[in-house]
């Protein structure tokens, strides 16, 4: 009984204490100027209505953009991912107060969800990225609202990879109201366009991409649905090519020079085939490695890829020509002779041997009819002379045929040599063109203002 009484007393004491705390708390709250002001501002605030007293009044939204980082340039999907700081400022006529009536409060933060906000979007926007959600805006006593937010934008952009790795990209971010025409919501720059253009102090300048400038422009889009105000920021960025020069261009140039050197081996040399085949394997390995690094886009192929394919075509042409030549020489000398593996043995040197061999065999063949038994000396002598004449005739025709074959072979060789020379010149021309193009691309890249 006693215990219950104590418990009840304690409970009532606690209740009194809690109610006292609560009452002083509500008293504190009602006494807080900030709370007072917020309540006064938001009590009858029409958050669905554009905040102007006179509906003919245009709400002007001032925009500003700071480029923070270029996160990804996806040429295959034509997408650019950037991180930007975005600021918009507008005036709300319903959110103004007399600061001397509220303890001199000049600026308060209000929840964004409780007030009217312009519906400004980025037109090129293609993907939702994680951006921190900032729920408050700052309002000052004249009703000016500041809304700052960092956003990660994935925007559609026409990316040109033609000049890779010396390419410059120009992507735009267009801000406009999705619904409101220029008669209701207008846009303007917060800073001068010159300042925006040159502002790079926020940019993280360590990545592959370098920010050149951010030119911007205001214009009104006239369409059937109405006239919309637009502000366009162009992000002009350029690639830092050094890594690609070291990883791609210099090895590719080495391969091409070695390939060019292979033309100095005589075309009828068989080790040239081995040599060229190993270069071809090298090219293939290189191309497989390269395909990860070189951006691919449906619209344009990088010039470096085109050059590589042309060089490969030259290599394959010259290789097949060498194979043709060796096969041709092989059938010509199919008399069991060892083929020269030495590259500087002339085919003309082996030719007399060939003809001598053939003559000897043909002599042997024509020798056999002389083995007839002798009957009379005269007859034999006349017969022998006739035999000899026939033999001589056959020898001369045989030699003529051989000569013709040799001539044919020589003309074939000459033609193939000429083809080889032509290929070499074509290759030199392509390589020269490659060098000149790369140098001029580099020069253009360098001439762009820092
Ligand atoms: C409440 O407001 C009155 C008048 O403005 C002031 O005198 C008093 O000190 C305030 N109380 C507290 C707890 O701030
Ligand atoms: C609204 O503004 C226009 C032009 O500024 C003026 O002609 C009109 O009288 C105003 N309307 C009201 C209700 O104040
Ligand atoms: C603000 O309030 C003070 C004091 O109540 C008054 O003197 C002043 O005129 C007011 N200012 C405006 C702009 O209404
Ligand atoms: C509110 O902010 C705007 C823009 O920054 C400024 O022009 C205006 O003077 C400020 N009003 C007051 C009362 O500070
Ligand atoms: C970027 O592209 C826009 C049009 O899309 C063009 O007006 C602007 O001049 C370009 N800027 C540069 C530096 O190329």
Automatic annotation (TrEMBL):
<dbReference type="InterPro" id="IPR006202">
    <property type="entry name" value="Neur_chan_lig-bd"/>
</dbReference>
<keyword id="KW-0732">Signal</keyword>
<keyword id="KW-1133">Transmembrane helix</keyword>
<keyword id="KW-0472">Membrane</keyword>
<keyword id="KW-1071">Ligand-gated ion channel</keyword>
<dbReference type="InterPro" id="IPR036719">
    <property type="entry name" value="Neuro-gated_channel_TM_sf"/>
</dbReference>
<protein>
    <recommendedName>
        <fullName>5-hydroxytryptamine receptor 3B</fullName>
    </recommendedName>
</protein>
<feature type="domain" description="Neurotransmitter-gated ion-channel ligand-binding">
    <location>
        <begin position="36"/>
        <end position="241"/>
    </location>
</feature>
<dbReference type="InterPro" id="IPR036734">
    <property type="entry name" value="Neur_chan_lig-bd_sf"/>
</dbReference>
<dbReference type="Pfam" id="PF02932">
    <property type="entry name" value="Neur_chan_memb"/>
</dbReference>
<keyword id="KW-0406">Ion transport</keyword>
<dbReference type="InterPro" id="IPR006201">
    <property type="entry name" value="Neur_channel"/>
</dbReference>
<dbReference type="GO" id="GO:0009986">
    <property type="term" value="C:cell surface"/>
</dbReference>
<feature type="signal peptide">
    <location>
        <begin position="1"/>
        <end position="23"/>
    </location>
</feature>
<comment type="subunit">
    <text>Forms homopentameric as well as heteropentameric serotonin-activated cation-selective channel complexes with HTR3A. The homomeric complex is not functional. Heteropentameric complexes display properties which resemble that of neuronal serotonin-activated channels in vivo.</text>
</comment>
<dbReference type="GO" id="GO:0140227">
    <property type="term" value="P:serotonin-gated cation-selective signaling pathway"/>
</dbReference>
<comment type="function">
    <text>Forms serotonin (5-hydroxytryptamine/5-HT3)-activated cation-selective channel complexes, which when activated cause fast, depolarizing responses in neurons.</text>
</comment>
<dbReference type="InterPro" id="IPR038050">
    <property type="entry name" value="Neuro_actylchol_rec"/>
</dbReference>
<keyword id="KW-1003">Cell membrane</keyword>
<dbReference type="InterPro" id="IPR008132">
    <property type="entry name" value="5HT3_rcpt"/>
</dbReference>
<dbReference type="GO" id="GO:0098662">
    <property type="term" value="P:inorganic cation transmembrane transport"/>
</dbReference>
<dbReference type="Pfam" id="PF02931">
    <property type="entry name" value="Neur_chan_LBD"/>
</dbReference>
<dbReference type="InterPro" id="IPR049944">
    <property type="entry name" value="LGIC_TM_5-HT3"/>
</dbReference>
<keyword id="KW-0325">Glycoprotein</keyword>
<feature type="domain" description="Neurotransmitter-gated ion-channel transmembrane">
    <location>
        <begin position="248"/>
        <end position="334"/>
    </location>
</feature>
<feature type="transmembrane region" description="Helical">
    <location>
        <begin position="242"/>
        <end position="261"/>
    </location>
</feature>
<keyword id="KW-0770">Synapse</keyword>
<keyword id="KW-0813">Transport</keyword>
<keyword id="KW-1015">Disulfide bond</keyword>
<dbReference type="InterPro" id="IPR006029">
    <property type="entry name" value="Neurotrans-gated_channel_TM"/>
</dbReference>
<comment type="similarity">
    <text>Belongs to the ligand-gated ion channel (TC 1.A.9) family. 5-hydroxytryptamine receptor (TC 1.A.9.2) subfamily. HTR3B sub-subfamily.</text>
</comment>
<dbReference type="GO" id="GO:0022850">
    <property type="term" value="F:serotonin-gated monoatomic cation channel activity"/>
</dbReference>
<keyword id="KW-0407">Ion channel</keyword>
<dbReference type="GO" id="GO:0045211">
    <property type="term" value="C:postsynaptic membrane"/>
</dbReference>
<feature type="transmembrane region" description="Helical">
    <location>
        <begin position="302"/>
        <end position="326"/>
    </location>
</feature>
<dbReference type="GO" id="GO:1904602">
    <property type="term" value="C:serotonin-activated cation-selective channel complex"/>
</dbReference>
<keyword id="KW-0675">Receptor</keyword>
<feature type="transmembrane region" description="Helical">
    <location>
        <begin position="422"/>
        <end position="445"/>
    </location>
</feature>
<dbReference type="InterPro" id="IPR008133">
    <property type="entry name" value="5HT3_rcpt_A"/>
</dbReference>
<keyword id="KW-0812">Transmembrane</keyword>
<keyword id="KW-0628">Postsynaptic cell membrane</keyword>
């Amino acid at each position: 009984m006693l215990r219950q009484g104590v418990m009840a007393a304690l409970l009532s004491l606690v209740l009194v204490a809690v109610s006292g705390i609560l009452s002083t708390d509500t008293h504190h709250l009602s006494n807080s100027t900030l709370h007072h002001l917020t309540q006064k501002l938001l009590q009858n605030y029409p958050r669905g209505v554009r905040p102007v007293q006179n509906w003919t009044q245009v709400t002007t939204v001032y925009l500003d953009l700071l480029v923070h980082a270029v996160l990804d340039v996806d040429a295959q999907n034509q997408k650019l991912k950037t991180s930007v700081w975005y600021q918009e400022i507008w005036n709300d006529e319903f959110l103004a107060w007399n600061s001397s009536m509220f303890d001199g409060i000049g600026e308060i933060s209000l929840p964004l969800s409780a007030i009217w906000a312009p519906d400004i979007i980025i037109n090129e926007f293609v993907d939702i990225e994680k951006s921190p959600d900032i729920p408050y805006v700052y309002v000052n006593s004249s009703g000016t609202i500041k809304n700052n937010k960092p956003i990660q934008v994935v925007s559609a952009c026409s990316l040109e990879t033609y000049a890779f790795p010396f390419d410059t990209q120009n992507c735009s971010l267009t801000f406009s109201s999705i619904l409101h025409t220029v008669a209701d919501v207008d846009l303007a720059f917060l800073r001068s366009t010159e300042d925006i253009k040159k502002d790079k102090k926020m940019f993280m300048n360590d990545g592959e991409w370098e920010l050149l400038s951010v030119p911007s422009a205001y214009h009104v889009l006239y369409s059937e649905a109405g006239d919309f105000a637009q502000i366009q920021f162009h992000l002009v960025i350029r690639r830092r090519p050094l890594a690609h020069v070291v990883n791609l261009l210099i090895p590719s140039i080495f391969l091409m020079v070695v390939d060019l050197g292979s033309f100095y081996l005589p075309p009828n040399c068989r080790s040239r085939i081995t040599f060229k085949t190993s270069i071809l394997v090298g090219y293939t390995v290189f191309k497989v490695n390269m395909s990860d690094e070189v951006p691919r886009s449906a619209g344009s192929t990088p010039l470096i890829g085109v050059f590589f394919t042309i060089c490969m075509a030259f290599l394959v042409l010259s290789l097949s020509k060498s194979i043709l030549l060796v096969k041709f020489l092989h059938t010509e000398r199919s008399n069991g002779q060892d083929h020269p593996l030495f590259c500087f043995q002339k085919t003309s040197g082996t030719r007399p041997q060939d003809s001598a061999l053939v003559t000897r065999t043909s002599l042997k063949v024509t020798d056999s009819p002389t083995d007839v038994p002798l009957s009379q000396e005269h007859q034999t002598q006349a017969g022998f002379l006739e035999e000899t004449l026939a033999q001589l005739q056959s020898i001369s025709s045989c030699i003529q045929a051989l000569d013709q074959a040799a001539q044919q072979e020589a003309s074939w060789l000459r033609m193939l040599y000429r083809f080889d020379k032509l290929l070499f010149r074509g290759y030199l021309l392509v390589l020269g063109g490659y060098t000149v193009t790369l140098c001029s691309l580099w020069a253009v890249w360098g001439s762009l203002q820092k």
